[in-house]
Amino acid sequence: MSQKSCMQKRLGEDVSNLISGVKILLPTIVKGAKLADEKEVERIPAFAEPPTELSYPSVDEELVAFDDHAKNIFVKLTSRRKDLDVISIVGMAGIGKTALARKVYSEVSIIDRFEVRAWCSVGQICNVRKLFLEILRQIMGDRYLNVDDPAYMLRWNLLGKRYLIVLDDICESESWDVLTRCFLSVERRSRIMVTTRNAELAQYMTQHSDPYFLPFIRYEESWELLEKKVFQGESCPLELRSVGTLVSKKCKGLPYLIIMIGGILSRKKRDASTWLEVAYDIGSHTLEEGSMKMIQSSYDLLPDYLKPCLLYMGLFPKGYEIRVSDLLKWWIAEEFVPNIGTLELEETSMSCLSDLVSRNMVVVSKTRVNGEMKCCIILDQVREFCLTKIKEEKFMQHVGKRLCMYIQDTMTSDFKERESFGISQASLEFIAHPKFSISDNKNLFPLLNNLRLIRVLHLLDFYLDDSWAAAFQLLTHLRYLAIFVKVFHIKWVSHLVHLQTLGVRSSYIMISPAFWKLEKLRHVDINEFPIRWADGELVKFEESTDIVLHNLKTLGTCSMSVADMTPKFWNKFPNLEQLRLHIDEFGDVPYYSDSRLMTLEMFPTRLRKLSLSETFLMDETVSSIAKLQHLETLKLSEIYFTGEKHWDLSDNTFKRLKFLKLHLIKSCSKLEEIPLSFADVPTLRLIKVTDCSKSVGDSALSIKQDMEDLGNVHLDVTSEQYKYSFDL
After folding, report:
1. CA-CA distances (angstroms) from residue 527 to 454, 461, 555, 607, 615?
2. What is the distance between the alpha carbons of residues 577 and 14, in angstroms, rounded to a whole number?
3. Residue range 595-609: average pLDDT?
4. With 60 as the cut, is the pLDDT of residue 660 above it?
5. How far is Cα 599 from Cα 620, in angstroms, rounded to an integer?
6. Residue 509, Cα to own-chain centre: how many angstroms?
7. Distance in angstroms (rounded) separating the CA atoms of residues 588 and 604
8. Domain locations along the chain
9. Residue 307: per-residue pLDDT
């Protein structure tokens, strides 16, 4: 058969499958799906992100033995079998099932092979509707605010696509039976990958491929991993080698236990007697007891200020990735982070997290382009330990904690037994994240009356009705507030004088001089933040007060005119490090003129991250931005260049730039290329070009080649055109 005939046959099969699926789903979809009002802003996920980029927990980073298992799973995922298949990874707790699944899931070839990918942690009790919504969110984003029947909406969006769905730690056959109704067995080579401790359940879920039983790692591999964790790449001294191999054997082939013990030994005295004590502690307990014993030992070695930081993380849902930027703000708000010398609190909190990572109590799951941690998780065993410790130490009972955290339904029932946590309804200081346990505002707002000491309130996943402002009046101890509302006026929160972080997603935002009452603000993250007063006041933003916000580090997204961009304004925020700016009008500034923006005298000199959108820039403007001495990240979106056909970079510019992103500049005939002089920026690590002209993308590749010719192989370049999609 000719190649053309084969293509026609395959196309015919695809169309046939698609038509069959439409006939099945269309009546229900029309009835069940309700899309959000187009005028509403897009909801931003609170802390859980689909793992759409490479994620390498420490287990699979260093365990060479996983390579063979990963290859075996890869073969199963990429087999030529056309219909849907289920790949089960089976093994006991701590053996590395999740780490192996993540390793394969994040392979570039897997990312390229499947049109749709989603990862969900299931856990002990499965609320299937919420799992459907989470998978749907990862596939389609947050555009669906209210879907009556997410199962059918999910089936519709998977129809005709090759997908990979990971269900981590599934425990019940009943949950599986409901979940699989969404996964049509059309011939698209789609796959479902599951991890489970239950061999019988794995056999029950089998469709074609047999379950993959993950074995314990061999003794020599155990020692290799332990040596890496303790000595960080150096060789073990001869006098410790024999006792070291004994310790590794006591771990009985459990990677997680080896990693925990490695963290302990790395901080203990390096002598044989000390290591023998550790070996005895492991050998005198069952595997489960030994694991908890080692976590307890690691916990005991923590400085006092790190212990509440770790316990705080134990309240997150099982398996969820926590956004590091949010976590650090919560720690600061709860006053877990100590003041150390001249260090900023953000620096100290990052140091705390790095310490927990180095002790293998926390795992980095995503990193940013500059190498910083983006997301982290705590492994299941550490989380179980934390929950036990929370009860023992009555962590939730102390007045000084005032926690508002994310929990899942399995924990909600536990917290209803107030005695176990020492919490009474009358003095409630804990609120479950609404994504998991609060269905509407009627349940939430009365609950807030008992949360007057609360410091952290993160409700970005939960739309609040117009009565939210009245409900928040008594929460005067708030340090962190993130909300999703229709209308927001700054005066409604101006009484929260301790507020450090303000995050708002809203359709209509109003600002007034009450803004200056929030003198302790460190981070302002509002989807569009107008730098002009509401109520028709004529006084300029910066002229209404002499107050200077010395603590402010992050400001965005500011919507302002060029006429408002004055040095006097930016002097109100002398320590600003991150700025997102949308210049929405030019006022009296002549068309194609960059006015004062060209001089950039008003921009704070300490800026590390700058994002500009929807404005005109001339060559001199970019050159001036390049002179910001601390700038590491520059993002330009929907920018219109009005100067020559290239930028003119001189020497001594972009001293620290690591990330350059250009988006939607294709229509600009004045920008034909990124100047090749960017190859002279030694710190540059990533250029990302999205929906720009081909010549701009080609110039980015030329810069990469020039840097490689000079011996710098650290630059990555990504260039892609906008991909249109049609949603029925």
Report:
1. 25, 15, 11, 20, 17
2. 51
3. 66
4. yes
5. 8
6. 26
7. 24
8. 16-45+66-213, 219-286, 306-392, 398-510
9. 94
**pTM for the full model?**
0.69
CB 219 within 8 A of CB 252: no
Q: Distance between CA atoms of 569 and 541, rounded to whole angstroms?
A: 8
Which pLDDT does position 160 carry in this prediction?
84
pLDDT winner (highest mean) among 33-42, 126-135, 477-486, 593-602: 477-486
Least confident of 127-141, 248-262, 494-508, 666-680: 666-680
Please tell me the distance from the alpha carbon of residue 294 to that of residue 260, in angstroms, as a whole number: 7
Task: Give, in degrees to the nearest 5, the angle at Cα 578 between 592 and 638.
Answer: 35
Residue 371, judged by CB atoms within 10 A of its CB (0-12, 13-18, 19+), counts as exposed
Find the radius of gyration of the CA atoms of the chain: 27
Residue 301 is given by DSSP the state T
DSSP code of residue 286: -
Q: Which residue has the tokens 């930016």?
A: 570
Rounded to whole angstroms, the Cα distance separating 230 from 224 reads: 10
Give dist(CA 62, CA 269) in Å, integer: 24
Q: Which fold has domain 16-45+66-213?
A: Rossmann fold (3.40.50)
Place of tokens 């039976």: 177
* Domain range 306-392, CATH class: mainly alpha
User: What stretches of 516-666 adopt beta strand conformation (E)?
Assistant: 523-530, 554-561, 578-585, 609-617, 633-641, 659-663
Whether the pLDDT of residue 87 is over 90: the answer is yes
The whole-number pLDDT of residue 524 equals 93
Q: What is the mean pLDDT of the chain?
A: 75
Measuring CA to CA, which residue among 177, 657, 639 is closest to residue 370?
A: 657
Buried b vs exposed e over 326-340: b needs ≥16 C-beta within 10 Å? bbbbbbbbbbbbeee
Residue 404 per-residue DSSP state: -
